[in-house]
Design brief:
Layout lengths: L9 H14 L10 E5 L2 E3 L1 H13 L10 H9 L3 E4 L5 E5 L13 E5 L13 E8 L2 E19 L2 E19 L2 H8 L10 E4 L1 H7 L5 E6 L6 H7 L2 E5 L12 E6 L5 E8 L4 E3 L18 E17 H5 L8 H4 L5 E4 L1 H12 L5 E4 L8 H5 L6 E4 L13 H12 L5 H9 L6 E6 L3 E14 L8 E9 L3 E2 L5 H4 L7 E4 L1 H8 L32 H11 L4 H13 L1 E6 L5 H11 L2 E7 L6 H4 L1 E5 L6 E5 L4 H17 L5 E7 L6 H5 L3 H4 L6 E3 L8 E3 L6 E6 L11 H4 L2 E5 L12 H15 L5 H13 L1 H12 E2 L2 E2 L5 H18 L5 H16 L6 H6 L2 H11 L4 H12 L3
Parallel strand pairs: 4-6, 10-12, 17-19, 24-31, 24-32, 25-28, 28-31
Antiparallel strand pairs: 1-2, 1-3, 4-9, 5-8, 6-7, 7-8, 10-16, 11-15, 12-13, 13-15, 14-15, 17-23, 18-21, 19-20, 20-21, 20-22, 26-27, 29-30, 33-34
Helix pairs in contact: 1-2, 11-12, 15-16, 15-17, 23-24, 23-26, 24-26, 26-27, 27-30, 29-30
Length: about 900
C-alpha cells in the first residue's frame, strides 16, 4: 500500500531516529540497499519511516514498499538517502522431503557439489523458501553463523552452516509468478539450484511477511466449513479494501455466529476482479442471491481448522483481543497486523483447548483428595478393574474390556476413552451433581494411573485456580439438566463461560421487559462501549465518501448521546447511520417518520382487545418498544459477549413528523435529566421506564426540501448532536473517481437484477467509455467554475446511471455519439432534474451559474440546460 500523506513530518522522523539510537535496529529490519544519513550516522530508511508512523499515530506502518517510494518520501522531508555497497544475499531451498538434513531454524546442510556453496559464509544474510502443495513460500530470514565440514557420503564432502540469527517469516510469503519471473531474470540464476544468489532489492522485498486479512463468511448464507473441508480453492467477495488486497496475501477464514471462529487459512491467488463463484462452490451456497457475479478473489486453502479456533480462544490471546472484527462485525474483509497474524498462525498449529465437567466421586465425595494431592492437584475417576487405561490404544478394545469387566453396555466406556485423551491445557470444571461447582482448573499432566486411592486410580494432574464452591446459577440450570449419569462430559466454551461467570447484569431473561418495562432500570446503567476513533473512521470511509471531520463529530455525538444527521437528499445519511451503528456494535431498527405520528405512537397507549371487550396496554412502536428490545440486547450481550451491545432506533426524515407533538413527553428523558426516565401512564401502576445508557436515537433530517417538512423546536434540538452530511467535493471539476467507482459497481449490481450479467456489463461499458465526461457533468451540477450549484448526492447519481443503463438495454444504443449524448440529456431531465425542482434549488442557482452551465454543456445537454433555466425563471 502507498505511504499515507500528511501524517508524518520531519519531527516524527527525528524522534524515530532517536529511538533507533537508543534501542538499536532489530536484525531482520536492517536495510539491504539504502542508508538514511543523518548527523554522520546511517539508519535503515524503511524501518525509520515505520517507526515514525508509530510516533505519529501509535501504530507502526507496515505493508508499504521500500526503495523508490520510501526514499522519495524521506527526501521530500529534507533527508539524504544513499545506496549501499552491494553485499551477498541468498535464497536457500529447504524442503521437508529433501535428502539434505537441515535443522529447521538452526542450520543448513549442503554438499561441495551444490552450486553456489562457496557463497555460504559467516555474516551472509539469507531467506529460506519451501515448496508446498501448489506453491512455494518464503518461510524464514536469517544470518549465517559458522560453517563446518561433516562426514562425507557418496556425493562427496558435506557441510553444515549454523544460523547466528533466524526468524520465521509469519505469515509466510507466497512466491507469486511475478516474483518468480523477477528472480529468474537475475544473472546466473537457476531455479533448480538450492542455493541461489539474489540482489538486495529482492531480498528487502521478500523479507517482509505477507499482508494478512480476516475474511468473514455467514454460515446462514454459505456453508464455509463444508466448502473448506472439501475444496482446495474457493472465491471470496472483496467488499472492503479492494485496492489493498493483492495476490500473495494471507487470508484467515472467519465463520460468523455464536459457534464461529477461525476455520482455516489460505493464500490469495489473483487480483480482485468481477467474477462468478466456482462451479464446485455452488452446492455450498445457502442464499441464491450470492450466486451471481461479484468483486472477489480466488484463494487456495492451506489448512482447514476442524474444530474451529473459537471466538473465546481468540479473545484469550492478548495480541488478538483488539481484532477489527470484534469492533465492526458486519463487514467481510478485515486487515490484520503482523503481530496479530503471528498469533493466529500459532493458534493454527496449536491444539485447541477443550472444556470438561468431571465429577470427583458421587456428590463430590473425593474432592478433598483432589485438592490436597501432594502432586499439586488432580482429578480422579473410578473403574479400577480395568487397570491402567493407557494400555488401550484402540477405542474398541477399551469398549470390549469395559463390557466384560462391568457387564454393562452404554456410553460409560466412551467417557473413559475421552478421559484418557484429555490434553495438557484443557480446562476442568469439577461438579457436585447438578447443584454446585466445587472447582475450576487447567490440566497440567495428561492421564496417569495412581493406585494410591484404589477405587479412583485414573487421574489427571490439575492446577486448581478456583476451589470456592458455589451453586449453579438459576439462569444456567438449563445447561446441567442432561448431566445426570455423566462422570465425564465435554462442554462448549460458551457453556463453560455461563457456568463459571459471576452473572453480573444477567438479572432478567431476554423476554421479560415487554411485560415488565419497569425492570429496564436493572440494566440501564451498563455503559456503552465506545469504539476506537481511528478504527471507526477507517471502517466507515471504506464504505462511502464521508469527511473525516464530520465523522469525528458524529462519533463523539453518539458517545455522548443522540444524533441528528442533516443534509440534502441522496448524500448517504441513512447509510451513514447504519455504519455508525456497526462500529458501535449496535443493532439498528429503522422507521420513517410520518406526519400522523402522535405521542400514542411514540410512547404508547391503551388499545382495544381483539374481541372489542376491554383494553390492553400497547407500547409505542416508534420508541418505547425499541427501548424494551434494547434491554433484551443488553442482556444477550452480557450473557454471550458476541451479540450487539444494544438496539438503537433510526428515524428517517424525522422532520416529516410533527416532532414536538409526538416527542414532547420525552424532552426531559432524552436530555438525561431525571435519570433518563419517563412514565408509562397507559400501563398499570404507571411505571417509569429508564432509558438504558447504551440506547441511542439517530435521526436523519432533510434540510433541503423545506416546503415539505416540519421544524424542530430549539428545546428538542438541544437533546441531539447535529452533523451535516454533504456530497463529496469535486476534484478538478469532476465528481471524485472513488465515488464514480462505487456508482458504476452498484449500478451494475442493480441492473443485473433485471438483465443478464453479460447484458448489464455491456450497458455499463458505455458509461465507462465516457467516464470523464459524465463525471464532469455530475460535477457541474454541484459546482461550476466556483459557482455553487445543487448538492446532488451519490444516491441520485446512482439512480440516474441505473435509469440510463436500463434505457440502453430496452431501446438500444444510439448509432452516433451525438445520439448517445441526446439520450443522456433525456435521462438527466427525466430522472435527475425532476427530483431537484424545489424552492431550495431555485434559491441556490443564479444567472452566473446558469450561463456557465449553458456555455459548458449546452451543446451536448440542451434540454437539461433549458429545463433548469426555465424552472429557475418560473417559466416551466
Amino acid at each position: 500500500m502507498p505511504i499515507p500523506k500528511n501524517v508524518v513530518d520531519k519531527e516524527h522522523i527525528l524522534k524515530a531516529l532517536a529511538a533507533i539510537d537508543q534501542n538499536g535496529v532489530p536484525w531482520h529490519r536492517q536495510s539491504t540497499k539504502f542508508d538514511l544519513l543523518y548527523n554522520e550516522k546511517k539508519y535503515p530508511p524503511k524501518y525509520a519511516v515505520s517507526l515514525a508512523f508509530g510516533v505519529a499515530t501509535g501504530k507502526e506502518l507496515h505493508g508499504f514498499t521500500g526503495g523508490e517510494e520510501t526514499n522519495g518520501f524521506l527526501k521530500s522531508l529534507g533527508f539524504e538517502v544513499k545506496e549501499k555497497t552491494e553485499g551477498i544475499y541468498l535464497l536457500l531451498r529447504s524442503n521437508e522431503e529433501s535428502p539434505w538434513k537441515d535443522e529447521h531454524g538452526a542450520s543448513y546442510h549442503y554438499g561441495a557439489t551444490v552450486a553456489n556453496n562457496k557463497k555460504i559464509q559467516p555474516g551472509v544474510r539469507f531467506l529460506v523458501d519451501r515448496r508446498f502443495e501448489g506453491s512455494t513460500k518464503i518461510i524464514g530470514i536469517g544470518e549465517i553463523g559458522e560453517t563446518s565440514e561433516e562426514a562425507p557420503n557418496e556425493k562427496g564432502k558435506q557441510y553444515r552452516a549454523t544460523f547466528s540469527r533466524y526468524k520465521p517469516l509469519v505469515p509466510p510469503r507466497i512466491m507469486t509468478e511475478e516474483i518468480e519471473n523477477r528472480i529468474s531474470s537475475l544473472p546466473n540464476y537457476n531455479q533448480q539450484h538450492s542455493i541461489r544468489v539474489i540482489n538486495a532489492e529482492l531480498f528487502q522485498e521478500l523479507s517482509e511477511p505477507a499482508r494478512a486479512w480476516l475474511f468473514q463468511g455467514n454460515p446462514d448464507r454459505y456453508d464455509i466449513a463444508g466448502a473448506l473441508r472439501e475444496l482446495k480453492e474457493v472465491t471470496w467477495s472483496v467488499n472492503q479494501y479492494k485496492d489493498e488486497i493483492h495476490k500473495g496475501d494471507r487470508v484467515y477464514y472467519w465463520q460468523a455466529g455464536s459457534g464461529g471462529g477461525i476455520v482455516g487459512v489460505g493464500d490469495v491467488l489473483d487480483e480482485p476482479r468481477v467474477r462468478p463463484p466456482l462451479e464446485s462452490e455452488l452446492k455450498f451456497y445457502r442464499d441464491d442471491s450470492l450466486r451471481g457475479e461479484y468483486l472477489g478473489v480466488l484463494i487456495r486453502k492451506e489448512k482447514f481448522a476442524d474444530p474451529p479456533i473459537r471466538r473465546d480462544q481468540v479473545l484469550a490471546i492478548p495480541d488478538l483481543a483488539n481484532l477489527a472484527i470484534f469492533k465492526f462485525a458486519n463487514a467481510t474483509n478485515f486487515p490484520i497486523t503482523e503481530t496479530e497474524a503471528e498469533s493466529i498462525e500459532k493458534l493454527l498449529v496449536a491444539k485447541p483447548r477443550r472444556y470438561w465437567k468431571i465429577a470427583p466421586g458421587e456428590k463430590a465425595s473425593i474432592w478433598s483428595s483432589c485438592v490436597e494431592n501432594e502432586q499439586g492437584g488432580c482429578i480422579r475417576i473410578g473403574w479400577p478393574a480395568l487397570g491402567d487405561l493407557s494400555r488401550f490404544s484402540v477405542e474398541d478394545d477399551l469398549r470390549q474390556a469395559f463390557e466384560e469387566q462391568y457387564q454393562q453396555k452404554g456410553r460409560k466406556w466412551k467417557e473413559l476413552w475421552e478421559f484418557l485423551h484429555i490434553r495438557e491445557g484443557d480446562v476442568i470444571l469439577a461438579n457436585n451433581g447438578m447443584t454446585s461447582i466445587v472447582g475450576v482448573g487447567a490440566v497440567t499432566k495428561p492421564y496417569f494411573f495412581d493406585s494410591g486411592l484404589p477405587e479412583y486410580p485414573n487421574c489427571l494432574g490439575v492446577k486448581w485456580s478456583d476451589v470456592q464452591e458455589r451453586p449453579i446459577r438459576e439462569d444456567a440450570k438449563g445447561l446441567v439438566k442432561d448431566w445426570f449419569g455423566y462422570t465425564v462430559k465435554e462442554l462448549t466454551a460458551e457453556e463453560f463461560e455461563r457456568l463459571t461467570t459471576s452473572g453480573k447484569g444477567r438479572v432478567v431473561s431476554a423476554t421479560d421487559f415487554t411485560n415488565s418495562p419497569g425492570r429496564l432500570r436493572e440494566i440501564a446503567d451498563e455503559p456503552l462501549v465506545i469504539p476506537s476513533m481511528d478504527d471507526a473512521i477507517t471502517y466507515i470511509q471504506q464504505q462511502g465518501f464521508y469527511d473525516a471531520e464530520r465523522l469525528h463529530e458524529a462519533i463523539v455525538g453518539l458517545a455522548l448521546g443522540h444524533l441528528i444527521l442533516a443534509g440534502p437528499p441522496g448524500t448517504g445519511k441513512t447509510k451513514l447511520a447504519k455504519h455508525l451503528a456497526e462500529v458501535f456494535q449496535a443493532e439498528l431498527l429503522a422507521e420513517t417518520a410520518n406526519p400522523e405520528w402522535s405521542v400514542y405512537d411514540v410512547v404508547g397507549t391503551q388499545s382495544l382487545k381483539p374481541d372489542g371487550k376491554g383494553t390492553v396496554p400497547r407500547h409505542g412502536i416508534f420508541f418505547t418498544s425499541v427501548l424494551l428490545q434494547c434491554g433484551s440486547s443488553v442482556v444477550r450481550n452480557l450473557n454471550t459477549g458476541n451479540s450487539p451491545q444494544a438496539t438503537w432506533l433510526l428515524i428517517d426524515e424525522i422532520n416529516r413528523a410533527e416532532i414536538d407533538r409526538a416527542f414532547g413527553p420525552l424532552f426531559t428523558a432524552l436530555s438525561g435529566e431525571d435519570k433518563g426516565t419517563y412514565p408509562l401512564d397507559y400501563y398499570e401502576g404507571g411505571p417509569r421506564v429508564t432509558i438504558p445508557r447504551r440506547f441511542r436515537l439517530i435521526c436523519t433530517m432533510n434540510d433541503y426540501d423545506t416546503r415539505f417538512v416540519n421544524s424542530m423546536s430549539a428545546a428538542l434540538r438541544r437533546r441531539f448532536a447535529r452533523t451535516l452530511v454533504l456530497p463529496p467535493e469535486n476534484v478538478e471539476g469532476k465528481i471524485p473517481e472513488p465515488e464514480w467507482q462505487v456508482v458504476t459497481t452498484s449500478a451494475l449490481s442493480k441492473v443485473q437484477l433485471i438483465a443478464s450479467a453479460a447484458k448489464a456489463r455491456e450497458a455499463a461499458m458505455h458509461l465507462v467509455q465516457r467516464a470523464e465526461r459524465i463525471k464532469e457533468v455530475f460535477g457541474a451540477f454541484r459546482n461550476l467554475n466556483g459557482n455553487s450549484g445543487i448538492p446532488v448526492g451519490t444516491a441520485q447519481i446512482l439512480d440516474t446511471c441505473v435509469y440510463l443503463m436500463t434505457l440502453l438495454l430496452m431501446v438500444g444504443v444510439p448509432e452516433t455519439e451525438v445520439g448517445w449524448w441526446r439520450l443522456f440529456d433525456r435521462v438527466l431531465t427525466a430522472r435527475l432534474l425532476s427530483g431537484l425542482e424545489s424552492d431550495s434549488t431555485r434559491m441556490r442557482l443564479n444567472e452566473t451559474y446558469l450561463s456557465a452551465l449553458q456555455t459548458k454543456h449546452g451543446v451536448n445537454l440542451p434540454t437539461t440546460c433549458k429545463r433548469l433555466t426555465d424552472f429557475v425563471h418560473g417559466t416551466l
